[in-house]
């Protein structure tokens, strides 16, 4: 009996200590309460789950993104970024000037330059992305850099593999970072073949013991290709046959990607080099091949591009801040597409305020999600949005995987980040912001084409759903910060 009392007291002390750690270490109230409930009501299991998945790496940065070894050079480059970005704001399109507070926030907070004279091409689905990627890879002269969450050893994966090996044999330096969780299937075959044929390959956050690895929760969700420092691809499409819609495809896959040619590639290159140095333990430094000068990129186009990235290595959820700022600046229309929509309080409030202010807010999400739990948690937010006048559309042609936003037909966001806790707080993500009416209007037209294949939620019917169903959704919402 004495031993039983001793262990009970020990357990209570342990729960109190872990609870204090959660309160001290967790940034948001919602996540704090979710983890506290888990620790208190799930003996031991809740504590194990927290230490596996809940430790705040943003507070204790997973790694430093400091790329420049020379501190004076770093200060000089930062000052040049400020001056160049201010010049772009003053001299370029109205879409930039009307959203200059968004651009300035990213310049000052992350030193992500506002870049002019880019060529930007929207790529819809894998059918448009992969031919462009293959063409660019074959034209590489100096280097190819790839960073992917999912890369599969299938038809398109092997086709790109062959090109990478061929280019490496020609003397082109090929570097490839893959997420060890999302691309776990290639580590013993495709990744090995690449390494044996001259391609430098490293997993990001290697998971040695998958069941007990805390790092499994921090995924590199980026999809980046950089060719010769002047052409880049970024967006939602991984390297997998599932993203290519063929006549025998089991499911139609709707996704969006970007090709960027010009100075907008530089920050993507910066992100890649930082991630590469982290996972390879190399110390690559910037040079003319990695960052070609503006003169060598003359004549690409007239689009203004800014890259925004965040992850456990950043001080704040920068992508979330950029989304919130763009919503706050919108005067007429907000169009959002997201496959996983668990917005949290701040994003929900921003959308509600925008809609109540007379801004037309439309949201496109999957009719059927590939995660029952995520789908239930997402639905728990719909009632509040519908009451405020937000229009919600359920895509039913297949699965919509695009992560895009258009505001006022003037700025367009395309990237890897979903509208959920994981993308905003846990994953390494990257979005491209294009301050250009032509691109924004193209993406706007695509959005309206997509909702022609969707069912609009009827607010009256939605609010009339059974109380039990709503209870299940709100229960899923309680644990949504941990999904």
Describe the structure.
It is a single chain. The chain has 483 residues and is an alpha/beta fold. The chain folds into three domains: 2-53, no CATH class; 119-300, Endonuclease Chain A (Endonuclease, Chain A); 318-482, Endonuclease Chain A (Endonuclease, Chain A). Helix content is 44%, strand content 19%. A hairpin with a 3-residue loop joins strand 5 and strand 6 (231-235). Helix 2 packs antiparallel against helix 3 (45-53). It is globular, with a radius of gyration of 23 Å. The relative contact order is 0.13.
Mean pLDDT: 88
Structural class estimated from helices and strands: alpha/beta
CATH homologous superfamily title of the largest domain: Endonuclease Chain A
CATH fold call of the largest domain: Endonuclease, Chain A
Backbone CA Rg: 23 Å
CATH class of the largest domain: Alpha Beta
What fraction strand?
15-25%
- Architecture of the largest domain in CATH? 2-Layer Sandwich
Number of domains: 3
Question: Shape from CA axes?
Answer: globular
Number of helices: 17
Tell me the helix content: 40-55%
Distance between the termini: 40 Å
Q: Would you identify the regions where 5 or more consecutive residues have pLDDT less than 50?
A: none
Number of strands: 17
Largest sheet: 15 strands, mixed
Strand order of the largest sheet: 4-3-2-5-6-8-1-9-16-15-14-10-11-12-17
């Amino acid at each position: 009996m004495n031993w039983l009392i001793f262990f009970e007291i020990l357990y209570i002390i342990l729960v109190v200590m872990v609870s204090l750690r959660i309160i001290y270490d967790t940034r948001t109230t919602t996540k704090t309460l979710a983890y506290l409930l888990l620790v208190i009501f799930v003996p031991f299991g809740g504590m194990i789950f927290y230490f596996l998945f809940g430790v705040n790496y943003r507070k204790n940065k997973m790694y430093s993104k400091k790329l420049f070894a020379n501190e004076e050079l770093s200060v000089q480059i930062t000052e040049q970024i400020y001056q160049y970005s201010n010049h772009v704001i003053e001299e370029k399109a109205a879409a930039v000037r009307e959203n200059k507070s968004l651009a300035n926030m990213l310049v000052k907070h992350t030193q992500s330059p506002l870049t002019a004279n880019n060529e930007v091409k929207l790529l819809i689905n894998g059918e448009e992305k992969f031919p462009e990627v293959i063409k660019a890879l074959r034209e590489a002269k100096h280097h190819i850099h790839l960073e992917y969450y999912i890369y599969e050893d299938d038809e398109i994966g092997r086709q790109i593999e062959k090109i990478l090996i061929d280019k490496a044999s020609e003397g082109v330096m090929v570097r490839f970072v893959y997420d060890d969780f999302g691309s776990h299937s290639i580590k013993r075959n495709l990744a090995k073949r690449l390494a044996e044929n001259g391609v430098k390959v490293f997993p990001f956050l290697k998971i040695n013991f998958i069941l007990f690895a805390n790092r499994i929760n921090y995924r590199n969700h980026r999809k980046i290709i950089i060719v010769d420092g002047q052409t880049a691809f970024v967006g939602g499409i991984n390297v997998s046959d599932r993203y290519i819609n063929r006549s025998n495809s089991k499911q139609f896959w709707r996704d969006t990607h970007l090709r960027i040619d010009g100075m907008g590639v530089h920050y993507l290159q910066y992100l890649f080099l930082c991630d590469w140095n982290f996972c390879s333990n190399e110390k690559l430094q910037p040079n003319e091949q990695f960052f070609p000068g503006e003169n060598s990129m003359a004549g690409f186009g007239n689009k203004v591009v800014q890259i925004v990235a965040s992850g456990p290595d950043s001080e704040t959820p920068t992508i979330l801040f950029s989304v919130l700022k763009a919503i706050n600046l919108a005067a007429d229309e907000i169009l959002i597409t997201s496959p996983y929509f668990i917005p949290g309080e701040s994003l929900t409030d921003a959308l509600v305020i925008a809609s109540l202010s007379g801004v037309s807010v439309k949201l496109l999400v999957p009719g059927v999600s590939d995660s029952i739990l995520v789908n239930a948690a997402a639905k728990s937010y719909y009632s509040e949005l519908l009451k405020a006048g937000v229009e919600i559309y359920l895509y039913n042609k297949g699965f919509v995987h695009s992560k895009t936003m258009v505001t006022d037909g003037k700025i367009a966001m395309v990237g890897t980040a979903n509208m959920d806790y994981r993308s905003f707080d846990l994953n390494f993500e990257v979005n491209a912001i294009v301050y250009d009416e032509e691109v924004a209007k193209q993406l706007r037209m695509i959005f309206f084409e997509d909702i022609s294949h969707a069912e609009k939620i009827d607010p009256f019917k939605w609010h009339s759903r059974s109380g039990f169903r709503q209870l299940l959704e709100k229960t899923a919402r309680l644990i949504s910060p941990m999904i």
